[in-house]
Amino acid sequence: MGLRPIFSALMRNGAGAILVAIQIALTLAIVVNAVFVTEQRVTKIGRDSGMDDQNIFAVPVTSFEKNHDFFAMVRNDLAMLREMPGVVDAAPTTQVPLSGGGSSTQFYSLPEKKGEKSPVAYYNTDEHGVNTLGVKLVDGKTFAATEIEFRPKDAQGLPGTAIVTRAFAEVLFPKDKEHLVGKTFYDDQGKPTVIVGVIEQMHGAWVGWDKLDRVMLSPLVGPGPGIRYLVRTEPGQIDSVMSAVEVALRKRDPNRVVGKLRSMQNFKQSSYSSDSLMAVTLSVVTGLVLVFSALGIFGLATFNVNTRTRQIGTRRAVGARKRDIVSYFMAENWMVTTLGVVVGCVMALGVGFWLSNQYGLPRLDLYFLVGGVLGLWALGQLAAWQPARRAAKVSPAMATRSV
Amino acid sequence: MFAYYLRLSLQSFRRNPGLTALMIMAIALGISVCMVTLTSYRAAARIPLPDKNDLLYVPNIDSWDPENPYDKDKPGNAPDLQTYRDTRALYASTIPDRKLMMFKAGGVLSGGNKMVPEYVSARMTTGDFFPMFETPFLFGSGWNAKADEGPEPVVVLSKETNEKAFGGANSVGKTVLWHDREFRVVGVLNDWEPAPKFFDVSNGSFDDPEEIYVPFTWGQIMELGSDGNTNCWKTEDIQSYQDFLNSECIWFENWVELRTPAKVAAYRKFLDDYVIEQKSKGRFQRPLNNHLYTIEGWMERNQVVGTDNKAMLIMAFAFLAVCLVNTVGLLLAKFLNAAPVAGVRRALGASRRDIFWQHLTESGVVAVAGGLAGGLLGVAGIWALRAWYGRFVQDLERVLPTDFGTFVIAVGISLAAGLIAGFYPAWRIGRAAPASYLKVQ
């Protein structure tokens, strides 16, 4: 069967076909870009933070009365927290990883701002920090209790030792990635810090930062008056432990402020909320667009069949088999879809290029375009299948009847 | 005639209820998706204090690292905050009609008769803050320039804080303790929750406003650090709070009110002169890069409307386009299917125009039905969006309002879109020659 007669028949009643083609073109442009962006966001949200982030929560406390012994408060609070049922471990921190709030600073592999350099997000904690975060130490050891500096107000500078992520250490010492423990790096005033432990993987403060996995833990507590405790619980017990901890902290020392308890999961979801919203919105739009395109193709194919009952009957009467009728309509649909897909490819690339240019989104990956084209071809054929089957059922006797 | 066309439309819908429902749904979904994205876009793009857009300015000077721009992606931007020295120097200018300097701090508030001690966020600022940003007062007022100089131990509470500390009673003249120091309440704000939080976009454009307001100079007396962003670039030996204040670290913001173009020009010159003078002292080694932003310009520079927001809006309107093309196709199919009826009406004397209007009415009815359904779906969508964000942000009503305006816009867009969608099919059917349809009957 030649495609030419189908094509010329199409051209005679072009408006409907062109509308379907436009719809398919727009659908391809939207779907390809939406799926591409969604896929990136989902990957971003699903990254491993390196921490036991499901089972950690944070509680801020602030001492405010004059002569309130801040360090005694921290020591006693933490000792109590570590004894509580359901608690794996607890540690002090300045900020909560993944929360969007934090501090970063720049380090160099050589003194006097020489050698390799890298920024790093840092957290001040104690010897329980590594276990509380649930990060995996791949080399070296965690801080010793004697190493922790309880720092009064106005003291400055770094303590001299640190546990760092592999990602950070490897940027500073790219030539000796096997022996990172014991290496010394320097701040911008040339003060040295020695690596005592290396963490396999840990996320820092800002999920939108491309150096999210460069993190440093410092053996430092204070100065007050505010601090946060991180608490890691047994799996599944976070909710009950959170309420127990709130009560226990208030009871142990009423002369300070216990702030709002918040799980790391909540911080994480909040930090990724714009990404997840984008992913959800785009998925919904993608789904709807596909459904409507399919319905549109289906509707128009049905209409075409209805208006051509006599023509189909005539063809059947002069010898066309059912199979011929089905393939006629499928071929017609395929031609329309192809026209739409060709235009759609250009549009999809245009939109992708424009989005990446205008808004700094990454350039559209061509695999997504290929997938979109194949998908829409399949969708078009699926949507036309039922009307085409119905057309094949038209009896040859229709040729002699009026509509 | 219109009523008759309406009746015909309804009859036509009854003939093909599935197809009609499909068209209405297509428009409704397209409209609702647009409505949701438009709401979040409009929320972000709203310009606070539109009347003051040509009065209020943010001075912005580039004290950053000579070797690296503040923002590598936008090297033309100066840092969004100032050093302590510079914020004081800019505040000292007598050109502006009003001026303020500020930073964000925090600390424990106690001492009110109903107060359970609590950590509260504080805006350390100067007295002009209140008239410049037109903050509404429930009780009392802000403080004057004399209180800034003292500084006097005065405080303005947010409405919520006043409720916590004094049960909502008029607390002017009463005292609270902040950082264990006594402050006298001079004013209580009424509900004031600008979204976006235009006066502190560097710490979160949609953050809640601060809970108390305290004269700026207390910050230095009490040696308070920033509760927001602090950024430093320079190698400096910082041993004390005073060293920190004198460092090149940035955490302050200035705003000025300039009522005449002459003052704007004079203030620009003041900024340039100041930077040039500082250059001679070895600071400001970057090229002269001063800006004086309006509120709108400041929102734009800080990308308060995120790129995601824009991309989603574009996607939403593209989706609406698909829905409309879909509807055009379905309407065309439907009308041509019923062409014989139109043929009979033409033969009985209806003019082409009558047929056209009849079918356009039908399209309009579909559009309005789709618009109303879409408006309702859109409101539901906005609720869903609020539920989504509600886990992280309190008080979403102000960030994502469902106003009647958006609903009207939705129905309006829908009607316009429906009529555009119906135009071609109605024209096409109106043009069809009656004879060809009558033959087969």
Walk me through what this model shows.
Chain A is α+β, with helices and mostly antiparallel strands and 403 residues long. Chain A has eleven helices and 13 strands. Chain A has helices spanning 4-12, 14-45, 70-83, 129-133, 166-172, 238-252, 264-271, 273-307, 309-317, 322-359, 366-392, and strands at residues 56-63, 87-93, 103-110, 114-125, 137-140, 149-150, 161-165, 184-186, 192-199, 215-221, 226-233, 256-258, 262-263. In chain A, strands 3, 4, 5, 6, 7, 8, 9 and 10 form an eight-stranded mixed beta sheet that branches. In chain A, strands 1, 2, 11, 12 and 13 form a five-stranded antiparallel beta sheet that branches. Chain A is elongated, with a radius of gyration of 32 Å. In chain B, a hairpin with a 7-residue loop joins strand 2 (98-110) and strand 3. Chain B has 441 residues and is α+β, with helices and mostly antiparallel strands. Chain B is 51% helix and 13% strand. Chain B folds into three domains: 2-47 and 306-440, no CATH class; 54-97 and 230-293, no CATH class; 104-224, no CATH class.
What is the gist of this entry?
The complex is a heterodimer of chains A (403) and B (441). In chain A, 49% of the residues lie in helices and 19% in strands.
